[in-house]
Each structure stands twice: as structure tokens, then as C-alpha cells.
């Protein structure tokens, strides 16, 4: 059967026609309720290089082990604190690798979007861990400000300088990966934060060597804790936005509605929702009423192209109807008359399939 220039197989399971995103094929409503999904790519793409993440992970883990050992020997809380931060860096990268693999699995069963939000879960876990570590190191840093231990400044300075080199290398490696993923970007920001912390630790070690002022080490610890709070809060906030179905950053729903309303033939926009399934996967749904002179299917196609081009939203589900078809009609005839029922179904029963200009409202 052909509807609006497209073939529709009757009596076959929609699952026999998979769309490009792995969901079951979509079937248009006859003439009026034009729902559709524009072509799109979901979540973390294959461009995110697992090998680069693995290299960064190896650098971080190796140096973290060395830093804990030296920090305990040198009695430097700043080094131990930064090793704790590097642990979250390593966890973020490891979770990003796991999330990439899980997100690549096709949607099935009740998981209609697949496991694409695994990366959001891991990002939130990383953020919470950072905040908890920040609390611990803040308490310990304040305690050491009151009663500072002797710190071996020379050893701390050597490790801090080595940490700067390792974090510069790790940041350079991750800068080449796909940072559209919240996990990859979170890992990158963790490493940058760690780099700043190493710089602060190196300065503290220099102050201890030059002046013997031992409180420079816990002050550097408090600096690391502050950076942890900043990074942790950002991860919790951004992952929370995804879970709360907030519009993606950079996409203003009001601007989207204005763009839709400015499309020729559009009369009303209802139930407009813009959200983010996972990093880099914005989605939109809306009910749109158009003029009777417009073809619903062609209007929907024009809107999908506009929304993708202007707002970068390629996953759209649009129901397009004629406004007149939703108006109640007077009851006529007996119970068997389809026009005896008001509302949308009554209007459709009364008018049937309209013959509209297939060119839409261009």
C-alpha cells in the first residue's frame, strides 16, 4: 500500500523494518497524524577512541600507585589527596570505557533506548565520589593546619613535577578522543583538575624547601579539595539535568517553538518536549496543527529538516494534524453514522482522507 508516496506493508510486524537507530520502523498515520523519526545517531559515537582512553587510564593508574607510596613515605597529605583524586580520574575513564561498550548494544526488550544512559549513571557516580573525597580531605587538611606534620619537601616536589608531566600527557591523549560523551569530557576535566592540583602541590613543596613553613602542604590539600568540589558538582549537575529530562544546554525550547511556529502553514504547537537521552543525543516530540491546505506528511518532513538544521536535533517525533480535524462536529444521523461522534475521530470519520497538495505549504 502506498500512502503519501511511501510504501507501507500491511499485516507485517513493524520489527521487520528496523530503522537506522535500531528501533522498530515507524508507520505514518493516514494523512493526518504524521508521526516520524528523523535520521539520527545516538549517544556516544564510535569515534570515541577506546585505545586513547586505555592509554590515559594506564598512565593515571601507574602514577597513582607511585604517588600513594611516595606520599606515605614523605608524610604529604597533599600527595595522598591528589592520589585520591587520580583514583576518581581512573574510575571515570574506566567507567567511560565500560559505558561505551554497553551503549553500543542495540535496543531490545523494555530498554527501548538501549543502555545509553549508563554513561550518565557513571558520570553521576564519579561526581558524588569527588564530593565525598573533597569532604574527607577538607577535614584532614584543616586538622593538619592546626597541627602540621613534618613534610619532606624535596620528595614531594619531585613527585609533583612528575605528576605535571603525566597529567599533561594524559590530557593530550584524551583531547583526541570523542569528548561529546559526558564521561569522556568528565575524565578530561578530572585530569585538568589534577594537573592544577599538582601545580599547587609543587608550589607548596617549593615553599617548604625555601622557608620550612609546613602548613603549605595542608593549604595545597584544601586547594585540591576545592577543585574536587568544582568538578564533582559540575558532573552531578549535568547528569542530574539528563535524568530530570531538562532541555540540552544550548537548545532553548522557546526558540524551538518559535522556529516551528514560523514554518509556513503551522497554526499551533502543543506538547513540545525537548530532552537529552544521553550525551550528544537530543530528542524532541511535539503535536503540531497545520492549515487544511497543507499536506501533513510533507509539513512534517519540512519541520524535521528545519529542526535538525537549526537546532541540531535529529531524533524527532512529530504528530501533525489539520486543526479543523480536531474540532468537534455536530451529531448527525443515527448511531451507525460515524459523524455522530464529536471530536477528532468524528471529524476524521466525516471527512475521510483529504486530498491535499503533496507539496505541503512551501
Measure the end-to-end span. Answer: 26 Å
CATH architecture of the largest domain: Up-down Bundle
The first-level CATH class of the largest domain is given as: Mainly Alpha
Summing up helix and strand content along with how strands pair, one would put the structural category as mainly alpha
Return the average pLDDT rounded to an integer: 76
Strand content: 5-15%
Question: What does the model show?
Answer:
- With about 350 residues, the chain is mostly helical.
- It folds into 2 domains: about 190 residues, Alpha-lytic protease prodomain-like (Up-down Bundle); about 100 residues, Alpha-Beta Plaits, CATH 3.30.70.
- About 55% of the residues lie in helices and about 10% in strands.
- Strands 3-4-5 form a 3-stranded mixed beta sheet, covered by helices on one side. The protein has a two-stranded antiparallel ribbon with strand order 1-2.
- The radius of gyration is 29 Å and the shape is elongated.
Amino acid at each position: 500500500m502506498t500512502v503519501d508516496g511511501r510504501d507501507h506493508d500491511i499485516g507485517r510486524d513493524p520489527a521487520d523494518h528496523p530503522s537506522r537507530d535500531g528501533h522498530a520502523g515507524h508507520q505514518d498515520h493516514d494523512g493526518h497524524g504524521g508521526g516520524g523519526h528523523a535520521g539520527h545517531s545516538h549517544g556516544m559515537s564510535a569515534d570515541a577512541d577506546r585505545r586513547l582512553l586505555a592509554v590515559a587510564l594506564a598512565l593515571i593508574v601507574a602514577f597513582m600507585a607511585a604517588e600513594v607510596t611516595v606520599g606515605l613515605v614523605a608524610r604529604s597529605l597533599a600527595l595522598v589527596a591528589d592520589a585520591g583524586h587520580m583514583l576518581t580520574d581512573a574510575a571515570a575513564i574506566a567507567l567511560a570505557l565500560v559505558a561505551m561498550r554497553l551503549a553500543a548494544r542495540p535496543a531490545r526488550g523494555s530498554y527501548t533506548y538501549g543502555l545509553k544512559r549508563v554513561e550518565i549513571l557513571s558520570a553521576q557516580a564519579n561526581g558524588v565520589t569527588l564530593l565525598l573525597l573533597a569532604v574527607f580531605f577538607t577535614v584532614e587538611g584543616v586538622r593538619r593546619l592546626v597541627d602540621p606534620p613534618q613534610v619532606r619537601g624535596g620528595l614531594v616536589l619531585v613527585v609533583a613535577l612528575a605528576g605535571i608531566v603525566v597529567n599533561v600527557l594524559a590530557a593530550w591523549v584524551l583531547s583526541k578522543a570523542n569528548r561529546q560523551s559526558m564521561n569522556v569530557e568528565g575524565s578530561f576535566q578530572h585530569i585538568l583538575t589534577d594537573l592544577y592540583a599538582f601545580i599547587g602541590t609543587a608550589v607548596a613543596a617549593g615553599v617548604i624547601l625555601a622557608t620550612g613553613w609546613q602548613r603549605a602542604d595542608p593549604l595545597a590539600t584544601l586547594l585540591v579539595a576545592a577543585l574536587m568540589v568544582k568538578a564533582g558538582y559540575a558532573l552531578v549537575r549535568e547528569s542530574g539535568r539528563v535524568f530530570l529530562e531538562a532541555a540540552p544546554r544550548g537548545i532553548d525550547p522557546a526558540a524551538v517553538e518559535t522556529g516551528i511556529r514560523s514554518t509556513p502553514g503551522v497554526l499551533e504547537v502543543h506538547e513540545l518536549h525537548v530532552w537529552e537521552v544521553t550525551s550528544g543525543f537530543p530528542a524532541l516530540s511535539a503535536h503540531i496543527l497545520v492549515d487544511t491546505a497543507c499536506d501533513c506528511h510533507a509539513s512534517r518532513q519540512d519541520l524535521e529538516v528545519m529542526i535538525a538544521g537549526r537546532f541540531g536535533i535529529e531524533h524527532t517525533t512529530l504528530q501533525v494534524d489539520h486543526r479543523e480535524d480536531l474540532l468537534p462536529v455536530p451529531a448527525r444521523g443515527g448511531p451507525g453514522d460515524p459523524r455522530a461522534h464529536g471530536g477528532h475521530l468524528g471529524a476524521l470519520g466525516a471527512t475521510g482522507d483529504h486530498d491535499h497538495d503533496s507539496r505541503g505549504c512551501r
